[in-house]
Specification:
By secondary structure, this protein is mainly alpha-helical. It has one domain. Helix content is about 65%, strand content about 0%.
């Protein structure tokens, strides 16, 4: 069954709180008490990790789509195609996307709630950032406002500058990327030090590891690309260091 299937209804059986609970509650006309709405931790207490991840992507993608002041057709198509949302689920997911896009709540409260849910799984948070870049690239260019928003979300997630730069650099074509940035290293580091970074990143971003921690299989292809980039960067550095 697709992770997108009946996303709204599927989440309602769980203990909801924070901005996500308010968002889903408003969609069905339900009333959520102030106490429940403020209990951000409740959101992740019983819900399936993959459902949380999917909902997070839809909401943050909606916020990102209007970061530069306009919602392009390409970005809307990207949310559907790149997140592999089937035609029969478009209406359900579209309701969440449109509600998140139209409401006055900013992206920060959502990012803070996601950070709390995945505080023990920073590599999953990195994958959210990776996919937000994926969405922003849909119209051929990541605008300055989109970049600033993604970077701010990364900061809220607790990711450091090296981690953010690595994700950003990994989005480039292999012939244009800086392999040291991808591996969170610099050219002055010795090969053994960089190898430790490479092994650490390879383990953290392995698709099987991410799936086990809640990244849906529908979006795991981007994780596979990240792994290929990590491997390519390591191969490049080995050649550079041996020349």
């Amino acid at each position: 069954m697709s992770i997108w299937g009946s996303l709204i209804g599927g989440m309602l059986g769980f203990s909801l709180g924070g901005p996500f609970g308010m968002l889903l509650g408003s969609l069905i006309g339900g009333k959520i008490s102030r106490a429940r709405a403020g209990a951000a931790g409740n959101f992740g207490a019983f819900a399936q990790p993959q459902q949380i991840f999917a909902l997070s992507l839809v909401v943050l993608s909606a916020k990102l789509s209007k970061a530069d002041g306009q919602v392009s057709k390409e970005e809307l198509v990207a949310v559907k195609d790149k997140l592999k949302i089937p035609e029969n689920e478009i209406d359900s997911v579209g309701k969440i996307f449109n509600k998140a896009k139209e409401e006055s709540t900013g992206y920060e409260p959502y990012a803070q709630q996601i950070a709390q849910i995945y505080k023990n799984n920073p590599n999953v948070l990195e994958e959210v950032i990776n996919i937000l870049f994926y969405i922003a690239e849909a119209d051929g260019d990541v605008s300055k406002s989109e970049l600033n928003m993604i970077q701010r979300i990364a900061q809220i997630f607790g990711l450091n500058q090296l981690q953010f730069n690595s994700i950003k650099e990994s989005r480039k074509n292999s012939d244009k990327l800086n392999p040291y940035i991808v591996l969170e290293s610099n050219s002055k580091d010795d090969l053994q030090t960089i190898r430790k970074k490479y092994l650490k990143l390879s383990k953290e971003h392995h698709p099987d590891v991410l799936i086990s921690k809640g990244v849906p299989k529908e979006v795991i292809e981007e994780s596979k690309k990240k792994m290929r980039t990590i491997n390519s960067a390591w191969n490049q550095i080995q050649k550079l260091k041996s020349s």
